[in-house]
Amino acid sequence: MRRALNRTLTAVLLTPALLLAGCGTGADSGEAPADGPDVLRVLAGSEIKDLEPLLRRAETEAGVKVRLTYTGTLDGAEQVATGRADGGVDATWFSSNRYLSLIDGSASRLSTQTKIMVSPVVLGLKPAKASELGWDGKQVTWADIAQAAKDGRFSFGMTNPASSNSGFSALVGVAAALADADGALTAEQVAAVTPRLKDFFSAQRLTAGSSGWLADAYARDQRVDGLVNYESVLLGVRDPLTLIYPGDGVVSADYPLTLLASAPDAKKALYDKLATWLRTPAVQKEIMAGTHRRPIVPGVTPDARFGAHQLIELPFPNRRSTADELISTYLNRVRVPAEARFVLDTSGSMGGERISSLRQALTALTGADGSASGVFTRFSNRETVTMVPFSGAPEQPVPFTVPERDPAPVLADIKRFAEGLDAAGGTAIYDSLRAAYDLPPAPGHYVSVVLMTDGENTDGSDYAAFEAYYRALPQDRRAPAFVVLFGESDVEEMRKVAELTGGAVFDARSTSLSSAFKEIRGYQ
């Protein structure tokens, strides 16, 4: 895999406030450099993480220390547009500014934008599957791909459009192509192509909140035939894929390093130095070699591995309401529905503020969070949600099914359930996890498990017994467990649970349960 994917399969995913990657002094120790006259503070998408080794050199070669703070696409856009990013960071570096540009008031928050590199979102298939479909060497369209998906001829993974720009770009591209849009995609066109979008996404078998994690999940699940992802990610997977460049067009990321209007003059000078350095031919070649992204500087020739495909850019919505409607349509109408099982620690140590935080985190997922990112993290229409509270033993699972139409009554039921949670007793983590995996999966649903605990296992079976139980499960009963660290969680054992199940760990010990639960929604 490319350098971006050189991670353990269960890399700890921290909430945005904790994801500080120092790219200047102190970077090797994992500590972000303190703010100062030579530090440029950048709010970034997780896709930029693979540039950290290169950015460390910016201190000596460009005179700029870079401090990266990672966040999700929609959450980051909202931070900038509302002014919450002002003063905390000097610049942003997302894979695209398209969604940000649709938010009222965002233009006044932004200053200079410098595009650094390019990567289109395309389809990558195992060579044998591409040959079987007759797509190796033949130009196909998104309509051809949608028809093959409808016919069940292949399967793919894609990131969640509400969490990751690669998924959002793919969704926009497919919708625009199927609508034959010759201008900005409209809400009417989205409505018209919804049945065909449902055909296309009927073949989706993997989802994720980030492009890198999706690639790791694909490497673990060989039942999936391919990925819709950035070209750069597809070129970097361990087993080579045949890349399909649809003839009707793509949506590309151009990674604009963007100076905020609120940045002081001293930071503007640092921005200019960094942007100039990143666009030098030598650095552009390093970016291309190390991350598989295309150079954006005209004088740098793209490598042969990108092929001779002419990239046609598909039209993007020019209204935020259209973009939001497209995401909502995906989540509530066209994607394969989710089945989310929440294994929730309600032991005595969860008393007081902790149980209150749990109630708030679950309530936020019922639609109480009206932020841009919160709107799309609520429990979706057609989703099955099962709550498994536990203390000294697991309680009886409580299932909820959110209907396709009029979800409000069921969401209100989930809210009442959350508000009724109380804390008492011991901590039977592994018996409770087993109770969640004992539940029969809902046909045609993605299944995932969320484990939230604030302590160590004190009752019932231990990790070794759970591991033996999980390894004996048939493949169709296995599902990733996303573990939320809280309080005095046993970090090592929780990482083992995530690694065993192909999930990930989210750290809520220094931020909030609400932030962790919102981030996990991108993986469900």
Search tags:
globular, 524 residues, single chain, 7-stranded mixed beta sheet, alpha/beta, disordered N terminus, 18% strand
Would you kindly provide a written description of the structure presented here, covering whatever features stand out?
The structure is a single chain. With 524 residues, the protein is α/β, with parallel strands linked by helices. 37% of the residues lie in helices and 18% in strands. The N terminus is likely disordered.
Structural class: alpha/beta
Strand order in the sheet with the most strands: 1-20-19-18-15-16-17
Question: What is the quaternary state of this protein?
Answer: single chain
- Which consecutive residue ranges, at least 5 long each, have pLDDT under 50? 1-32
Radius of gyration: 23 Å
Helix-strand layout with pairing:
Blueprint: E1 12-14, E2 20-22, E3 39-44, H1 52-56, H2 58-61, E4 65-70, H3 73-81, E5 91-93, H4 98-101, E6 110-115, E7 117-125, H5 127-133, H6 142-150, E8 156-157, H7 165-178, H8 187-201, E9 204-206, H9 211-220, E10 226-230, H10 231-236, E11 242-244, E12 252-253, E13 256-260, H11 265-278, H12 281-291, E14 294-295, H13 320-334, E15 338-345, H14 353-368, H15 372-375, E16 384-390, E17 398-401, H16 408-419, H17 429-437, E18 446-453, H18 463-471, E19 481-485, H19 491-501, E20 504-507, H20 513-520
Parallel strand pairs: 1-20, 3-4, 3-5, 8-9, 8-10, 15-16, 15-18, 18-19, 19-20
Antiparallel strand pairs: 2-4, 5-13, 6-13, 7-10, 7-11, 7-12, 7-14, 16-17
Helix pairs in contact: 6-8, 7-8, 7-13, 8-13, 14-16, 14-20, 17-18, 18-19
